[in-house]
Amino acid sequence: MPQWDKTAGQVWDERFEALTRNNDLEKDIDADAHAKIFGLHRATRYVLSIAAAVLLLFTAVSLLYTKEETAGKGRTTSVNLPDGSLAQLSANSRLSYHPLLWFLSHKADLNGEAYFSGTHAKGFTVNTAQGNISVLGTSFNVSTFDNRFVVTCVTGKIAVKSKSESIELTSNMESTILDGRLTARHIANAESAIEWTKGIFTFDDKPLSEVVRYVERYYGIKVKPQEGIDTLRYSGRFTSEKSAIEALTIIGQPFGITFKMVQ
Amino acid sequence: MIDRNDFKALFEAYYESIRLYIYFKIAEKEAADDMAQDVFMTVWEKRTLMEQKNIKALLYKIAADLVVDYYRRCEVKADFSRWISYAGNETATSANEQAEYNEAMQRYANALNLMTDGQREVFMMNREEQLTYSEISERLQISVKTVEKRISGALKLLKDNMLEP
User: Fold this and answer.
1) Chain B contact set for A12 (CB, 8 A)
2) Which of A168, A216, A253, B151 has the fewest C-beta atoms lying within 10 Å of its C-beta?
3) Is residue B161 scored above 80 in pLDDT?
4) Which of B162, B154, B87, B82 is closest to B125 using CA atoms?
5) In terms of CA atoms, which chain B residue is nearest residue A7?
6) If DSSP states are collapsed to H, E and C, what string results for chain A?
7) Testing the interface with A: which of B37, B79, B127 to mutate, by most A Cβ within 10 A?
8) Which chain A residue has its CA at the smallest distance from B28's CA?
9) Looking at residue A214, what is its pLDDT?
10) For residues B112 and A22, which has the higher predicted lDDT (pLDDT)?
11) Percent of chain B scoring above 70 in pLDDT
12) Cβ-based neighbours of A135, under 8 Å, separated by 6 or more
């Protein structure tokens, strides 16, 4: 049998006596902490619960509370966004955003056409069904009518994103999504894209069908028939303060087309 | 859950046995003492998960696991001639007698080295610590039959070695 250096009793005294005592202390502290959580500080727990509930409610309300701005048929409207920038809505267009969550995400959903200008908050994003535009400090026009998607950068710089691609636009550039592909091109005069904000229609060598569709959705009317006008192209500029039939008369004139109002 | 009093009682009842048990396996005095302390340290740290039932066998299981770790670390085989050297012969009266004693002890150590780990631990628990077969079977969670088989195997090895010319 080996001669041990220490007896079991010595080992206990040296290694385990203090250790097991300290742990008893720890247990007492644990019990104390327990008592505090479930006993003495019940009031504090209530306050905390209420605070949590209020926070939760606020979050839910913020998420649900959406401000929606709509421009009706034949008229445009201006929207002041929470960051002080301006969104001008074209006819038959809708812009919505979360005012209460604005400090978290500077996002707006657009359906239709709008011109954004002024100083945007950092990270301002416009979402549409077709693609998203990230604003890098600029003014730009977005048009999503008839399932088309045309973004015109007037000044500054923006980033346009489709589901799979991303393009940066600088001033006097236009981006469209054609057959799912995002394209960008330079244009002579981006101002023409936002002339509607001044109450002026500008069409520069556009297919007549597109022009008619524009008038249709601007005034909220139906024009028919539209067959046979696909090959014609129209250029012109006139004020949008005219009535729908006046506008169509101006457009039809060069082609010898006349329109009739039917209720 | 075992509390401080249970733990102290457990320590007093089994520390010596566990220390010996490890020693029977590794033949290292200091390491055996350290590892025995580790066994009880483990029990103390996990005391909230422990049940009184079967705790005895659990002590041996933890010890055995520590020994496996130990061998994995040092990759040496227990050499029981070292152990023999600790146990001097106080009754030897002459140099001749001492030499004979040493010779016998050397053979004993050889036999121990030749035993399997299972044979040796059971053999030593029985012969050195004087535990009964049923006590050993309970502590190591093996059947009494197994204990008997290992003891007889150990005895055979011992006989062969001691009687060798």
Assistant:
1) 8, 11-12, 15
2) A253
3) yes
4) B154
5) B16
6) CCCCCCCHHHHHHHHHHHHHHHHHHHHHHHHHHHHHHHHHCHHHHHHHHHHHHHHHHHHHHHHHCCEEEEECCCCCEEEECCCCCEEEECCCEEEEECHHHCCCCCEEEEECEEEEECCCCCCCEEECCCCEEEEEEEEEEEECHHHCCEEEEEEEEEEEECCCCEEEEECCEEEEEECCEEEEEECCCHHHHHHHHHCEEEEEEEEHHHHHHHHHHHHCCCCCCCCCCCCCEEEEEEECCCCHHHHHHHHHHHHCCCCCCCC
7) B37
8) A2
9) 79
10) B112
11) 88
12) A116, A120, A123, A124, A125, A126, A158
Angle (CA) A242 A244 A245, round 5°: 100
CB atoms A19 and B44 under 8 Å: yes
Q: How confident is the model at residue A133 (pLDDT cuts 50, 70, 90)?
A: confident
Give chain A positions within 8 Å (CB) of B32. 2
Answer whether residue A138 shows pLDDT above 80. Answer: no
Q: Is the pTM of this model over 0.95?
A: no
pLDDT-derived band at A147 (thresholds 50, 70, 90) equals confident
**Is cis: bond before A82, omega within 30 of 0?**
no
Mean pLDDT for all residues in chain A: 78
Cβ of B29 and A2 within 8 Å? yes
A18 to chain B, any CB pair closer than 8 A? The answer is: no
Please report residues of B whose CB lies closer than 8 A to that of A23: 4, 44
* Nearest CB partner across the interface for B128, out of A1, A11, A21: A1
